[in-house]
Design brief:
single chain, alpha+beta, Alpha-Beta Plaits, 4 strands, about 30% strand, globular
């Protein structure tokens, strides 16, 4: 398993649209066999920060499976408007 963390900075006026887009994207992820779980988190100290945590079976299945699938197009259209707000997008392995 690998965990993808996507850290966003989203201004207050865009937050309702952002949260709704992620909610819809999560509905699409729910049908993806290689997606194990997902969660959007909102920072309590800095109201513009969000972290979207997505668990995948592997980096390989995420990058060469889902990202090359027919389902990715609809997913990408939902999140594309917020790409400029991404501060980090990486995969992490669980330690220990």
């Amino acid at each position: 398993m690998t965990i993808e963390f996507i850290r966003y900075r989203i201004t207050a006026e865009l937050q309702p649209t952002f949260v709704e887009a992620i909610r819809k994207a999560n509905q699409l992820l729910a049908a993806v066999p290689d997606c194990l779980n997902y969660q959007l988190n909102h920072c309590e100290e800095d109201a513009e920060l969000f972290i979207w945590r997505i668990e995948w079976t592997s980096v390989e299945r995420h990058l060469n499976g889902f990202r090359k699938s027919a389902e990715f197009g609809a997913f990408f259209q939902l999140v594309k408007p917020f790409y400029s707000g991404i501060q980090e997008m990486n995969h992490y392995a669980v330690v220990g």
